[in-house]
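Subject: design request, 677 residues
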């Protein structure tokens, strides 16, 4: 690796103490021996002798020799400069070697340092920056996000930091100069900083300070100090370089994991970390370069998903890890638990149920084997938070859920955090928080949530696409073609009194079959049948209370022709698991949502809304403010009590991810659905 002169200068500044701090020069007391002479004698003058002779000048004092001292000083300074140049050169060679050993992000790390001419990123002088401290805190907490610590090699990081600490201490211990050599050392370092290193200047300085060839042997001591200091500084430079590189590549990895990794998406996941790292390299580097390293703590926080459920799910993960640690032996409930009722006599089994619910902090009463009101409340709350019909008794679904180990719940929570990080709410074009209004449909929760300024503004139950296996008559393929797809699109239009253009597959595979038993089916249910110019038959259901789309639909144009709408089949909203549609999302209380969008968030009046609705005429309204809506898949949510809410894995995406069956193969005829053959 060849470094430019400016890069070499930057490397030199990177040395542990870029210039050795000069000690204050000790005040010199007394008179230098080289400046003392004997007094000149003069002959006595008398009047008795001959006339006075001319006055005789005193002889010049012998010259103090300094040539050998100056030569040794010059040699010391030349060696000093050569050693520091060697430090720079050695640092460059060491840098190249250290970068070459990286397992992750070798190319991007090298690119980052080249862009900075090899100036440090996480250290200043011999100290790590506050940003380094913030990054270390984040790295040591990766497991709190459900991330594996293995790619970060945290033990290796600790060893690198320990080596830096040891080398820093060793360097600091070399700096104090013994008292007997301090004055000469201060003289040498002071002259090196302020004088040109020529013989005339060095001789004058030595003369002024009172040093002569008699002090040559003392220079050997100073050379020893210098060797010790520079050797220690060389070792510290290497340790600082290693720490800086260690933090750099781990920060690149952290950016990838928190913002760009995609390993759990059922259709678009990267099959390996290596594939993901390669796919996202440009984006990772752009995020790295956009970082304000003086405010790295804020930058690290900004990498986390902004949706409120993320932080709450992190807390839930910590809670369930504590449960798993506290109760490694999970309490299994036998099938007989389904027959327990209030006032029953099976005290041992009731006590076992109480203990199980107490472990998860649903039951806080005395474990006395009595099935009373407190236990019934605990069962009911458990059912509410596990998407089970509330009965206060343990049915087969409740028993199966209770028999799920805490370790399995921990894995579910870890995957939930990953799905939050991989959601288009976090990675997509319209990141959560970038727009004041945001929509989200979570398929396993069967719920649509609308946010305003980052807070929940509205929630509506929805019915999503069913998971039945069907055969497509046109292609002959078998698959789960009614699943609601995962995507993001902008909600642009609210349509009051909508018509329904029946999709070809539904017409041919469902409605046309009803004509065999009920020839006037279309007429009775307000369908209009038209023959198009190409000879195909189009069926449209006209507006009215019996319309399959109800009284309103919400359009967010997408390639799947999926949207939200009203429905005449209200009874399905009473079920905890609601996967019954052909892919679109039937919405509970949709007129309230429409009124909120048009009146509260728009410029309509209630009177206008009611008038248009009563007209029974289809009326589309373009929203002034488009609202990004993301269709998500996450089997964990947050209950109103603050507890974790565990949902049904309705499309089995979690199960197949854990079994290594995702990503599913893509099929052009049935894009983003599970095709079986």
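Subject: RE: design request

Done. Sequence follows.
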């Amino acid at each position: 690796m060849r470094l430019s002169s400016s890069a070499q200068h930057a490397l030199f500044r990177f040395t542990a103490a870029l210039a050795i701090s000069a000690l204050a020069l000790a005040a010199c007391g007394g008179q230098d021996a080289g400046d003392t002479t004997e007094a000149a004698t003069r002959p006595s003058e008398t009047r008795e002798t001959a006339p006075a002779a001319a006055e005789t000048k005193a002889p010049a004092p012998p010259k103090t020799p300094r040539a050998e001292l100056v030569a040794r000083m010059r040699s010391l300074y030349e060696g000093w400069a050569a050693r520091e140049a060697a430090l720079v050169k050695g640092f460059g060679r060491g840098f190249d070697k250290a970068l070459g050993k990286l397992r992750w992000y070798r190319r991007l790390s090298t690119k980052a340092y080249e862009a900075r001419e090899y100036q440090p990123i996480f250290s200043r002088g011999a100290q790590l920056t506050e940003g380094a401290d913030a990054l270390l805190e984040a790295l040591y907490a990766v497991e709190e996000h459900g991330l594996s610590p293995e790619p970060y090699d945290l033990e290796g990081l600790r060893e690198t930091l320990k080596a830096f600490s040891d080398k820093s201490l060793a360097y600091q211990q070399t700096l104090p100069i013994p008292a007997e050599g301090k004055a000469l050392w201060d003289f040498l370092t002071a002259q090196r900083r302020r004088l040109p290193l020529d013989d005339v200047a060095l001789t004058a300085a030595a003369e002024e300070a009172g040093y002569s060839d008699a002090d040559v042997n003392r220079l050997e001591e100073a050379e020893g100090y210098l060797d010790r200091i520079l050797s220690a500084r060389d070792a510290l430079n290497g340790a600082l370089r290693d720490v800086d590189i260690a933090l750099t590549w781990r920060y690149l990895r952290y950016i990838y994991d928190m913002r760009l990794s995609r390993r759990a998406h059922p259709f678009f996941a990267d099959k390996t970390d290596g594939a993901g790292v390669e796919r996202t390299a440009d984006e990772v580097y752009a995020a790295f370069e956009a970082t304000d390293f003086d405010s790295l703590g804020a930058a690290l926080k900004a990498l986390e998903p902004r949706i409120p459920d993320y932080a709450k799910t992190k807390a839930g993960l910590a809670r369930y890890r504590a449960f798993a640690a506290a109760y490694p032996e999970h309490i299994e409930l036998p099938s007989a638990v389904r027959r327990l009722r209030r006032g029953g006599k099976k005290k041992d089994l009731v006590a076992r149920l109480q203990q199980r619910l107490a472990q998860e902090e649903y039951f806080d009463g005395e474990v006395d084997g009595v099935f009373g009101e407190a236990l019934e409340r605990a069962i009911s709350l458990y059912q509410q938070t596990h998407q089970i019909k509330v009965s206060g008794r343990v049915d087969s679904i409740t028993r199966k859920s209770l028999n799920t180990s805490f370790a399995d719940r921990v894995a579910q929570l870890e995957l939930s955090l990953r799905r939050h990080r991989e959601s288009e709410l976090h990675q997509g074009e319209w990141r959560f928080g970038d727009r004041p209004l945001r929509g989200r449909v979570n398929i396993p929760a069967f719920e649509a949530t609308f946010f305003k300024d980052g807070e929940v503004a509205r929630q509506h139950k929805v019915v999503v696409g069913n998971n039945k296996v069907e055969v497509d008559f046109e292609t002959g393929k078998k698959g789960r073609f009614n699943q609601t797809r995962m995507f993001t699109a902008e909600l642009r239009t609210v349509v009051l009194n909508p018509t329904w253009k029946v999709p070809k597959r539904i017409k041919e595979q469902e409605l046309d079959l009803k004509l065999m038993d009920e020839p006037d089916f279309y007429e009775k249910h307000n369908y209009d049948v038209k023959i198009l110019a190409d000879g195909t038959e189009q069926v449209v259901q006209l507006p009215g209370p019996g319309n399959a789309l109800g009284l309103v639909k919400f359009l967010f144009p997408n390639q799947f022709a999926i949207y939200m709408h009203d429905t005449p089949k209200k009874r399905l909203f009473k079920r905890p698991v609601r996967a019954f549609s052909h892919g679109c999302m039937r919405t509970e209380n949709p007129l309230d949502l429409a009124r909120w969008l048009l009146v509260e968030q728009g410029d309509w009046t209630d009177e206008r809304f009611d008038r248009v609705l009563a007209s029974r005429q289809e009326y589309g309204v373009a929203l002034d403010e488009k609202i990004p809506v993301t269709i998500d898949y996450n089997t964990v949510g947050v209950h109103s009590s603050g507890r974790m809410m565990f949902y049904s894995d309705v499309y089995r995406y979690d199960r197949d991810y854990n079994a290594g069956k995702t990503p599913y193969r893509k099929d052009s005829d049935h894009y983003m659905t599970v095709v079986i053959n």
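The chain has three domains: 5-14+64-299, 331-404, 428-499+543-675.
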